[in-house]
Amino acid sequence: MTGLSAAPTLVVGLGCQRGCHVSTLRALLDQALQAHQIELHRIKALASIDLKRDEPALNELAEQLGLQMMYFSSEQLASYQPRLSHHSDIAFERTGCYGVAESAALALAEQLANGPATLLIPRQKYAQATLALAGAA
């Protein structure tokens, strides 16, 4: 990257257990961004798996932050398996993909930037939720 290149497209991928509270997701997000010194306004969108489309906390978080929430099918996310930092057999049993947060973050970052994405924050787990952050140039 050159000194004046455009800011990367940053996307947060989220996974959560049914009934997870929005405050849990927000705490995880704030904690991860603070630990990596990333400002909230740099996040372009949120992503998860389509099985979570009706999960109130995910949609509530997107609304609170004024960000778009995008959902991907397990088929779309499965292709990211070789790039995951963590493979969860439980996630695979429940969703058909080995890592919802990381896969969703990579998928959306690549879609928005129309180019390859990298995991900048690997899977973080907190209470009933997981988070990952991906960026694409």
TrEMBL record:
SUPFAM superfamilies on file: CobE/GbiG C-terminal domain-like
Name of the molecule in the record: Cobalamin biosynthesis protein CobE
Pfam families, per the entry: CbiG_C
PANTHER family attached to this UniProt entry: COBALT-PRECORRIN-5A HYDROLASE
Superkingdom of source: Bacteria
Organism from which the protein derives: Pseudomonas umsongensis
Gene3D superfamilies referenced in this protein's UniProt entry, alphabetically: CobE/GbiG C-terminal domain
Sections of the chain in a coiled coil: none
Start and end residues of each CobE/GbiG C-terminal domain: 10-134
